[in-house]
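Running this now, will post back.
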Amino acid sequence: MASTSEFRNGFCFEYNNDIYTIVEFLHVKPGKGAAFVRTKLKSLTNGRVLENNFPSGAKVTDVRVERRQYQFLYEEDGNYNFMNNENFDQVVIPKELINNTDLLKEGDVCEILFHAEKEIPLTCEIPVSVILEVTYTENGLKGDTATNALKPATVETGATVRVPLFVNTGDKIKINTTDNSYIERAK
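Update: finished.
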């Protein structure tokens, strides 16, 4: 059992017959009334986000989780196959547990969160940034750089990303996977 004083971002616990992780939390002490903890929780089984208030000092059942590095192998029928590079164990994860699968390419190393006691995968986090090659984009107009104009570009995984006008087909670009945004040209 854990108390609300132990809450931190990434803390995992059981609540309403589901496993949640804390995305955001804030200890609130109003001028009148009892203190409470305002939280934003993300379900590790279905990905839904909900907001909830816990009274200060409330007890929750914490869940022990382990983060392990797995390499993405291939996608088959909406399921994604990963392999542990140390012992070569393979695990299949459904698409619903992975964010931005359109930026995932074979060979990428991802972090999979496992329930430590039950040994079941809870969620998969792809790297914060990936380097992909642009397979198609329109040519930018020379001299049209006075504003931060963006154009659509298709990358090797099939995803569409908004890039600056100077990016051409064949360039390698670095992409932020949290919001599918262009970061920089890769070397």
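Residues 65-125 form a domain with the OB fold (Dihydrolipoamide Acetyltransferase, E2P) fold (CATH 2.40.50.140). More later if anyone needs it.
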